[in-house]
Design goal:
mainly alpha; 0% strand
């Protein structure tokens, strides 16, 4: 355990970088995924087609390929947000495709009569979505969204291969410097990831409980 205790500041910085990646790409995924989800349910054919194409392309493209494209490809096109944000962009647009499908399933789980009632009083599609359907859909899809963000937590480890000093990057460094303590190092880093996952699960559980009480 000496390797972990003696380098606790580095491990902590690694997990803070992991959380930074998780929060920034997760926020992008949530906003973009919700927007694409609305497009997916839109009565406008071109918007539906765009959303279907987006989900089909990004759900079926390996995340590592997207990271390579943004990490190396964007600077070649003169678009460079910095290595961290290029990787964040890749993880965000990839995860957004899963958020889109979660939102779509949530909206489809709402009784059809609610959308029909909104239309009957003259509410346009945009207002029906934002005022009636989306608030209920988000409550319905808390568990699948939690699963999406748990998967994103694990996917942040891919950033280690591109020099981002997150938790997995620190793991590799500790293993190189303290090969005889590999078991304790693996366990310590794994516990850190488990804590993050459990916090996401706890947040989802508390949200569900609050909704169940106030419903």
């Amino acid at each position: 355990m000496d390797a972990l205790t003696d380098n606790f500041d580095l491990v902590l910085k690694g997990f803070l970088e992991t959380l930074k990646l998780l929060l920034s790409s997760g926020l992008l995924a949530l906003v973009l995924g919700t927007l694409i989800g609305v497009f997916r349910l839109s009565p406008v054919p071109i918007l539906r087609g765009t959303a279907i194409a987006y989900v089909t392309i990004f759900r079926n493209t390996p995340l590592l390929v997207l990271i390579l494209l943004t990490y190396y490809g964007l600077p070649q096109l003169g678009i460079d947000f910095g290595f961290f944000w290029n990787i964040t962009l890749a993880m965000g647009v990839y995860t957004a495709s899963f958020v889109t499908e979660a939102i779509r399933s949530g909206v489809n789980g709402i009784p059809l009569g609610q959308a029909e009632a909104a239309r009957s009083i003259g509410m346009p599609f945009g207002m029906t979505m934002t005022q009636v359907l989306l608030p209920q859909a988000f409550r319905l899809v808390v568990p699948p969204l939690a699963s999406v963000f748990i998967a994103l937590t694990k996917n942040t480890s891919l950033a280690a291969g591109f020099g981002i000093a997150e938790a997995t990057f620190r793991l590799k460094g500790l293993l190189n410097d303290h090969a005889t303590e590999r078991v304790s190092i693996f366990v310590g880093i794994a516990v850190g990831y488990i804590i993050i996952v459990e916090l996401i699960s706890l947040g989802a559980h508390l949200f569900e409980r609050k909704y169940a009480v106030t419903r």
